[in-house]
Amino acid sequence: MTGEEAVYTGPPPTLRPPADVAVATPPRQDDVAEEPAPAEPTPYLLVMRDASWAWWRPVAGLLTIALLLGVGWILTRIVDVFTRVGTDVDGVPLDWRSLLVTDLLLAIALPAVLLAWPLVHGVGPGRGISSAGRLRRPLLARAALVALVTAGAGVALAAAGAVLLADRETTGPVPDLAWVLVVGLLTVPLRAAAEEVLFRGYLSQAVAGWIGRPRAGAAVAAVVSAVLWAALYGTDDLTGFLARVAFGLAASAAVLLTGGVEAAVALHAVCGVVVLLLGAGLGEDAVPGFVPAGPGEAFVLLGVLGLGAFVGLGARGALRGGGSGRESERQVSSSPAP
Fold first, then answer.
1. Cα 306 to the chain's mean position, in Å?
2. Mean of pLDDT over the chain
3. In the predicted model, what is the mean pLDDT of residues 140-167?
4. What residues pair up with 7 in beta bridges, in sequence order?
5. Interatomic CA distance for residues 15 and 211, integer angstroms
6. Is the pLDDT of residue 232 over 50?
7. pLDDT tens column, 250-284
8. What is the distance between the alpha carbons of residues 67 and 96, in angstroms, rounded to a whole number?
9. Which of 89, 225, 261, 303 could form a disulfide with 199 if both were Cys (CB 3.0 to 4.6 A apart)?
């Protein structure tokens, strides 16, 4: 034939192709390239490994956060010189001025962490919030409800048991009760969010990133963040210290279950508000673990059991609303990095 070689492609079926015409044959099954399997999503605690990983980047990020907190601490010292209102992380005695200064100081950790991500890692700050790269508000609301009926109820029962069964002293409402409640309800959740984003977020991600293995990284990060956060509030009272360590471990478990800090923030905020309301209404001595020593310390166990119930319900799917866990990790793995 003249020109390009003709290719026989089909009908009419009653005719045989000429001898000089090549017959098109379908590709064999072996020749068809298989689609690559989808990549495994990156766990929330290991997302630093996806963001231009280098061992020194988490160090630089933590130093940046520490620098901003240091600036805030200096400013509070200046305020203390002129007003005699300083910081007291223990919150005892409950005074609205000290509560305001302390909570705002610790709240600096939130913008500091959000700044460290783009400044040090070169990606958006959403990586520090969840594996979905954003704040999942439905999950935050759902976790707050679960925390209220578990950990919050445990704290309330612990206080009731200490007062009724252990004769723990109740001094009544604190001075300036209205101002304490207004300032506390506005700043305690903000402080809780900042502490969780720092300890169960950035610090845990840094520790897990250095280790590089999902299970080992999560376990070590949980212990390190829990102990350091508990030590921030002092180590003089062993019962209170161990209770805070238990809280930190529960918050880390919530992070692992949901792939972000929203559930941990909700748990921390709910417990903080419940303690605030009890301490302000009954007196600081009425809340076990709020002040060192005194009767009723055994009732701290009720609060720990409430934390266990929160984690247990989360493991059974009570925190799955709002897009969490593996679903969110698949979303961020299939989307371009911010």
1. 18
2. 84
3. 90
4. 22
5. 70
6. yes
7. 999 999 999 999 999 999 999 999 999 998 988 87
8. 27
9. 225
